[in-house]
Amino acid sequence: MLQNGQISLKQLTVLVVLATIGDSILVLPAIPAHEARQDAWIVAIFSVIVGTLLGILYHAVGKLHPDLTVIGYSEEILGKWTGMVVSLLFLGYCFINSAAYLREIGDFITIHILPQTPLEAIHITFLLIVLMGVRLGLEPIARTAEIFFPWVIILTLFLVIALLPQAQIHNVQPILEGGVKPILRGSVTFISYPFMELVIVLMVLPYVNTDERKKVRNSLIAGVALGGLVLFLVTTLAILVLGVDLTARHLYPSYILAKKINIGEFIRRVEVILGIIWFLTIFFKFILYVYGLSIGLAQLLRLKEYRALTLPLGMILVPLSLLISPNISYLFTVERLYWPFFNATYSVLLPFLLICAAVLRRKRKKIEGEEQQG
Fold first, then answer.
1. Which residue in 44, 48, 164, 270 has the most C-beta neighbors within 10 A?
2. Which helix (H) or strand (E) covers residue 8, if one does?
3. Is the pTM here over 0.85, yes or no?
4. What is the pLDDT of residue 247?
């Protein structure tokens, strides 16, 4: 293996939780609010249920060859050349997603925090920190996630408790006014971003402690459920406090929501809380993708060391993040209308393809073995 360190089940759960929340906590409430209106909270519940099923799917794929990443067992299952093509496509998916995350980070910071700072400076600064983490390896990344995870939970609880007094129950009424179709439309995006993008765990599962691998499925389900609960709370609070129209109209409704915190006319405008949660969670989601990209490319090229690839990949990611979208409105439109299908291709279709191919391959070997014995 290119990576010698191992992570525990607890660390895997923490990474899944943080990756699930990721960039979704900032932008996600707007999309189900736009599609399903006041029923966005139902969208969140349905999506979390589907997300847990995706976690089970990724566990099933990982069990095919527990000691290999998706790059390794693509060649084992599909053959050398077909497997290499599939691996290249998967790495391209990781590469494009990484560029999109970097662009999202730069856009939010330049819009709300550092408007006079060049976008390129934000991208390069953030990316250097990510590349440093990738070069240190998965084990330090997981340990760092364990350190910051309690703060994410504490700040989320503070956000929820501080906003509950402003919740207006009439903002979620009437229930199911538009029927089921708007809920299904809103669920497409809600399932896509937090849960489909967890396919990157297929690059991490081989490094889970060997003695604990029997419980990986429970770990994935717990991580998806806890991360999904946070997104459900934020989405529901956005509808209850801001209302449907304001939630659907803003690019970053959660950030606007955090501005509403007012405790005794003393603690006000503490949107930095939401900013910290977002910054930490998208950092770990982004670093997992860059790590998976580096490890996967090194495996595909049959290299003994992946760290030499990190700097060249970073140098390509910066200009790609600028080219991927002309502006934030364009990126959000593409992510809402087309990106879910892009995600589904690699996060649902590819795992099913690998499972079906593995089953057929085993059946063929079994038939050949019986014929030889006969």
1. 44
2. none
3. yes
4. 84
